[in-house]
Amino acid sequence: MTAKTFTFDEDLTVNRLGYGTMQLPGAGVWGPSKDPENAVDVMTAVLNSDVDFIDTADAYGPLFANQYLKQALQAYQGSHKMIATKVGFTRQGPDVWTPLGNPAYLRQQIEQNLFSLGLDYIDLMQLHRIDANYSLADQLGVLADMQREGKIKHVGLSQVSVKEIEAAQEIVPIVSVQNRYNLIERTDEVVLKYAEQHHLAFIPWFPLATGALAKQSDGPLQKIAKAHHAVPSQIALAWLLQRSDVILPIPGTANLSHFFSNTAASSITLSEDEFKQLTALGSTDAV
User: Fold this and answer.
1) Domains of the chain, first to last
2) CB neighbours (10 Å) of residue 35?
3) Where does the NADP-dependent oxidoreductase domain lie (predicted)?
4) What is the pLDDT of residues 159-218, one digit of tens each?
5) Between the N and C ends of the chain, which has fewer C-beta atoms within 10 Å?
């Protein structure tokens, strides 16, 4: 039976279907939203829903996504929501992402995340990318130091190999990995398997990539969606949720109706045959 929740520690269990803030800033994840008020409204809807795992990053905007989340958090009166964020990227313009693992810069980013989110500590701080120009020990050492200072609760990684996860575990306990993975792109199956074996949260970024499959009116994805009175994106999320109990999808959107559509995917149960048909559509080849 598919698990509805994932447990990080004795005090932190979340519903597996989360939300990612990457779509809130402007085009190319750069600059403010064209409609900042709507961005805050979307975050308010997320906070008032059953979603209790929210993924963001200081690089989104930069900082604009965090600011919209902060505004919504300031008015929120409900129970604790797990906030995950990331450090390790610099931004020079739309769709431009440059890794920087300078320890002093990473510490500054963590402080900026705390300030821009209005939080005293971060539930999950992820290294957005490993920078080959600095040792892994230096990069993760900063996160370990700030974990001891009480500013970080858990540490995760993004877009890494099993070997890199194992090396990281020698420096600081790792609880999650965020790699590109979806219905049709599954290059990191070996990383998912490792996550399952070691109870690491596997957070697939770009979880809704269905590409040309969604446009095939008579293809398996469309047929299965019609059978469930759903849309292809909901079926793609339902497949991820059934693929593994350690997968925590974080679909992002700046559209309220799309958000509610995404959350409805958690109530879809695929038959064994439907799951097999969808699994057969994917590729483990590098993209």
Assistant:
1) 5-210+246-251 (3.20.20.100)
2) 12
3) 16-281
4) 999 999 999 999 999 999 999 999 999 999 999 999 999 999 999 998 887 666 667 777
5) N
